[in-house]
Design brief:
The complex is a heterodimer. Chain A contains 11 helices and 2 strands. By secondary structure, chain A is mainly α. Chain A has 2 domains: 122 residues, no CATH class; 85 residues, Arc Repressor Mutant, subunit A (Orthogonal Bundle), CATH 1.10.10. In chain B, helix 2 packs parallel to helix 4. The radius of gyration of chain B is 13 Å and the shape is globular. Chain B is mainly α. Chain B contains 4 helices and no strands. Chain B has a domain of 43 residues. Classes of the chains: A mainly alpha, B mainly alpha. Chains A and B meet through helix 6, helix 7, helix 8 and helix 10 of A and helix 1, helix 2, helix 3 and helix 4 of B.
Chain lengths: 232, 73
């Protein structure tokens, strides 16, 4: 894992290690600087500061999901540096807010400036605003979906991947488990319903302003590009 | 796109871009695990062995591919 040190810090912070918590929080001023560099009006700057102020609670305090406390930082998978990941999460929230009705500047016909410096240390060149919007969401989607599937039991995970990745017939699974095919079908339906619910919940935790439906998630998954990770 | 295709897209996406769900860190298969996987596919493992093998396969891409191959044949 390329970002194993950052992953260790995140896990230690989730475990309550104060030095690790401080290390996570020390990334926030950088993220704020990136957000502010993209703002061209005072409303956006105020929102950027609000987003950063909310992040410590979301990252480390946790929110209830299905009776279990889930912390945003648990969705960090180590694909990008922790600094870049936190910045992408914050930037996605700002962009979603820009797209929403709360952003009055758009009504005046002025668009926010496109991405130019998402991460001076990490980014590649040639970013373009519209393309980055999609890849921002893809980055979050990958984390949200990974987390959704990691909460499955081994049996649920294996069955799902055998059927939908390897094309194994449900009848074969029934024979393997010594049960009726209807049991496998019912279990898969429950697994899929849980994934749908957890995926949308996770995305809302990552970006409360993001307006995304199940069909949007599927369409993004069917696309081939996740270029934002290439730039980290 | 029906629900079956939707989940093919999701699981395929995770195989391309996910992290540890498909077990990229544990690609190798030792002889003991391979035998367990063949037993799992044949339905000859007891409950405890089956759960242990499912746990191993869930984090091992090569193991999952072998299990799929056994079940299809």
């Amino acid at each position: 894992m390329v970002n194993q040190d950052d992953l260790n810090i995140a896990q230690a912070a989730l475990g309550g290690d104060s030095a690790a918590v401080n290390a996570v929080l020390e990334e926030l001023p950088y993220s704020l600087a990136v957000l502010l560099s993209k703002c061209t009006d005072s409303d956006s700057e105020e929102k950027a500061r609000e987003i950063i102020e909310d992040l410590p609670g979301d990252l480390l305090a946790g929110v209830d999901r299905d009776g279990k406390t889930v912390k945003l930082l648990e969705m960090y998978q180590g694909r990008a540096s922790l600094r870049s990941w936190i910045t992408v999460v914050a930037l996605s929230r700002l962009k979603s807010w820009w797209r929403g009705p709360g952003y009055r500047k758009r009504e005046r016909g002025v668009e926010p400036q496109p991405d130019q410096d998402a991460s001076p240390a990490d980014r590649g060149d040639g970013s373009d605003g519209a393309a980055h919007d999609n890849s921002d969401v893809l980055a979050l989607l990958a984390d949200a979906l990974s987390d959704s599937l990691s909460s499955l039991t081994p049996r649920e995970s294996v069955c799902l991947r055998l059927v939908y990745l390897h094309g194994v017939e449900q009848q074969r699974l029934a024979r393997m488990f010594g049960c009726h095919a209807a049991t496998i079908s019912r279990d898969l339906d429950q697994t899929k319903a849980a994934i749908k619910r957890r995926l949308l919940w996770n995305l809302k935790l990552l970006d409360p302003f993001l307006e995304i439906t199940w069909n949007d998630c599927v369409r993004l998954c069917a696309s081939e590009s996740i270029s934002i990770f290439d730039s980290f | 796109m029906d629900e079956e295709d939707q989940f093919r897209a999701l699981v395929g996406f995770l195989e391309r871009f996910g992290s540890d769900v498909s077990g990229r860190s544990a690609e190798s298969l030792d002889a003991e695990l391979e035998a367990k996987i063949r037993g799992l596919a044949a339905g000859t493992l007891d409950d405890n062995e089956r759960e242990q093998t499912l746990l191993a396969v869930s984090g091992n891409r090569a193991g999952l591919e072998l299990l799929a191959s056994c079940l299809r044949s």
